[in-house]
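Reminder to self: tokens first, then the designed residues, so the page reads top to bottom the way the pipeline ran.
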């Protein structure tokens, strides 16, 4: 039991919901470099019915106001963007036998680009999925928390 506490006591999870229900279709853009752990979250989102875009696809929109002023704003094809950040060592000494990783932190922050507010933040530390016998549900937890924004 002491060994189990020592091994699992290092893992940490925190979730922040802004209490906002996501509106519209289940479309989300991912803002992160192409890494295996990003693809794991992306695959789980697709399996949950999301259309996943690789980029925010910002476009410049120019409008003219009633005062004859020209305003330029950015418009995104996805209203919600998940920004992924992490700290992980990928050398052989820090990899799991099943192909997973040890994360010092892995954070997913969902931003509503219409309001420029964070509506969800999920942070995890510890072993990822595919790290037997210490596997977590890190990628699934992130995808499930994002899906819960539409299902509240």
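Designed residues (152 positions):
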């Amino acid at each position: 039991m002491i060994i189990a506490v020592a091994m699992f006591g290092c893992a940490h999870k925190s979730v922040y919901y802004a209490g906002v229900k996501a509106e519209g279709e289940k479309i989300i853009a991912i803002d992160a470099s192409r890494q295996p752990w990003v693809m794991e979250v992306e695959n789980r989102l697709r399996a949950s019915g999301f259309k996943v875009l690789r980029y925010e696809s910002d476009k410049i929109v120019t409008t003219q106001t009633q005062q004859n002023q020209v305003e330029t704003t950015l418009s995104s094809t996805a209203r919600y963007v998940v920004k992924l950040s992490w700290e992980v060592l990928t050398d052989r000494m820090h990899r799991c036998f099943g192909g997973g990783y040890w994360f010092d932190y892995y954070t997913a922050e969902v931003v509503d680009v219409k309001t420029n507010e964070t509506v969800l933040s999920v942070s995890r530390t510890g072993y990822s999925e595919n790290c037997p016998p210490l596997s977590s549900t890190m990628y699934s937890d992130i995808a499930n928390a994002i899906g819960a924004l539409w299902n509240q």
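Helices lie at 2-8, 36-47, 138-150.
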